[in-house]
């Protein structure tokens, strides 16, 4: 229903959802199926979320394709065919467009529109959501599907405006192809985005200079086209794939081997790690059950990967610069195609900007403490303000006008119940929010679980005439404490990364992800629902008696 207020239209819906990526699309589908009127607001001109924006050369997913999709519809699963082991960005975007078409989702999505603010109106028990188009959406439920890593981090380096060449951030890549042919290109950053794009850019550019602050561990993806027979079998085993996405630790079928790193002899360990290396992808992560908690054991795995880097990279000085010294797997465990091999090319050079920091961007290139590098194009592969960045971009205000940013002390202290809700913000849900398992696994699996929990919850509220759901302060305190306790027992917290917020100058250090694994988390959420939403306060709507 559309009303008019101060010449701006007001749309009234049951639920407003921000974002038309994996989470927003499925949320829309589920709510519509359940009979809730829903409006999705999306800043981009199309569906896809991060896969709409991250169009940089070499962009691929690091979950295997057969798991990197929805599993809620057997028909959908069987209709779509992935071409290779790790899906590339254009193919994932085609998949999400296919989903949007199949379920006719676009008619409830408003594209090219940003949400400026969302405020809870206590008197009316509704969320008033202000769009940058001037429209207002009034909704009973406010749901964020803004992604965990969707707000680009463009470092504040002096002089970028005076650079005469072109510059791009991997997370906001243009739709048209950027042609590097014959150009001198500089890439700043060696996280997943840098490591994926560097080998592809190197093949095109006249010269590529990589500006590396922190070397990263990466193992070969061993990407390959899928065999049609494998795909046929996968589709036949749809139920099993769905079970694996729901019941395994990170939603990709793999289980951790039930053995400590320190239980193996050096010979056994070498054999296990070599086999995992040969299989490619995330196999090393699953080779032992204590990689992320065992300092001594982690070092042994890190030594193994470092030895591989030294073997691959021919120039010893470059190889030494590429050797990471943090705990393996505590920054994102990256998988690549020919990343370290790329440094054997004559047209590629590596600059250590920890030793000689970037001082400024000049008209002609990048000046570090060591000198000036002349460039035609600069690629910022400098990552994102993760977990809270996209939530804080929207002015979200709960009870008494308190903003989410204030409540979470500007990110210093996220407080949630189950990573889905936060006290003082009634009828608001965050899909893959801080303190949920989210990025520590296969996102579509995490997203399906969240979306299904939220839509089941809304149906429960409707059936029981509940007007307001809100977590109790005690439940929230316990959940946030539990998340921190689990994280503090791991090596994640000892490494500077976007997980810990260390990549954003001035951002408070924390670890806002539930590390207990997808399957245990699902069980906890299910138990909460089964116990009549234990830890939440549910307020029944006042009955109006007919006169
Ligand atoms: P990232 O992992 O945060 O890496 C950013 C890189 O830029 C780091 O090497 C960082 O160095 C460097 N950097 C940042 N500011 C800098 C500065 N001022 N000067 C010099 N270097 C600077 O970001 P990302 O590579 O975009 O990846 C982010 C996350 O997105 C990944 O961890 C992953 O979860 C996801 N992702 C996944 C895929 C995939 O599925 N394959 C692909 C891309 C991204 P420091 O390490 O020193 O901070």
Automatic annotation (TrEMBL):
> Entry's SUPFAM superfamilies?
FAD/NAD(P)-binding domain
Identify the cofactor(s): FAD
Query: So which residues are the signal peptide here?
Result: none
Q: Which UniProt keywords apply?
A: FAD, Flavoprotein, Monooxygenase, NADP, Oxidoreductase
Xref: InterPro entries: FAD-binding_Monooxygenases, FAD/NAD-bd_sf, Flavin_mOase-like
Q: Which GO terms describe its molecular function?
A: flavin adenine dinucleotide binding; N,N-dimethylaniline monooxygenase activity; NADP binding
Give the similarity note: Belongs to the FAD-binding monooxygenase family.
What is the protein named? Answer: Cyclohexanone monooxygenase
- Look up and give the organism this protein is from: Bacillus thermotolerans
